[in-house]
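Retro notes
What went well: the complex prediction finally ran end to end.
Inputs used:
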Amino acid sequence: MADEEGRSARKRRVIMEAATTVFLRHGYVGTSMDEIAALAGVSKQTVYKHFADKERLFTDIILGTIDQVAEPFHDQVLGLEETEDLEKHLTALARRLVAIVMQPQVLQLRRLVTGEAGRFPELGRTYYERGPGRTVDTLAAHFQRLAERGLLRVEDPALAASHFNWLVVSIPLNKVVLTGDDDAFTAADLERYADAGVRVFLAAYGRS
Amino acid sequence: MADEEGRSARKRRVIMEAATTVFLRHGYVGTSMDEIAALAGVSKQTVYKHFADKERLFTDIILGTIDQVAEPFHDQVLGLEETEDLEKHLTALARRLVAIVMQPQVLQLRRLVTGEAGRFPELGRTYYERGPGRTVDTLAAHFQRLAERGLLRVEDPALAASHFNWLVVSIPLNKVVLTGDDDAFTAADLERYADAGVRVFLAAYGRS
């Protein structure tokens, strides 16, 4: 029975990996469940046993990828409100955030979702909520507590969290999603953008 | 002769309008020159007389749209370095900028280019250079002169200009390109984001 469950989970993972490859290669509209089944080496019925339809499969891939890559960020944000060195903690968090967002697989999914947003807004909403939306919500809650401790001057925690997020990631992210040049920035470049974003953020929201 | 030129310019415009419609409906890959010719009511030879190939036609549409919508921004930025009220001038500029970037046609082209960036990076580079790239270059030159006048504290004008640009547009732009919901923000919402972006920018880069 446990063996049966293990085999089913493995098959699910193989299907998701094959589907990611096919989606990124042909786009959402150009992808068929037949092709995914063929690449995964399973029958089409098996694909449908795990995923009700193409949209569900695609949504599960987005959620799986985002949740997996975002885990280290959400780990690192824990304890932010008890920090004894806010700038240091925020800088580490900012560096982690930009490194996550700039991973090729994340960028590729982002492009794919963006390209289909006009036709399939539900996919985009899911990506937004689980990606930047969740990041901003998490940061806002921590910034609120930092403000209560007198370490930040924040009237609107959600706005401050959005400013933090986009100050850190916007410059490289918005360039690379358009140009397709995923290697345009080195890890050191990304750290410099993260550090500069934190400096601007603290100038506006830090204790004066 | 003048009449002949006028007719040619009109035909060119009709082809570009038809092409924009077809590209936005079917994506770059899904669009054929045949379909564009049919919608424009001209022969395929006429399309090829004006545009060497599909990529050239698409590039011309991007350049035409961006240059046209960006004109009011570049008009407004003139004289920024002689301003007597920097916050007021920057706020007006920020409001103009976010209004331009959030126009549905600009958003739709941005999604289209983003979705194709993996396969056609040249299109994305063109969009980037003529859009955000040009905005940042223009701002950087003005910020440099404002720093020389002692009105801004700026070590790296390009970085400061990028921070200004993304502080102003990132929150609504990055949400809407993903969710496809072009009407998510009212004009008043956009102005509030512009104003808040300017406040953060001046906290970091304004005269202390």
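What we learned: Chain A touches chain B through 44 residues (CB under 8 Å).
What to try next: split runs per interface for comparison.
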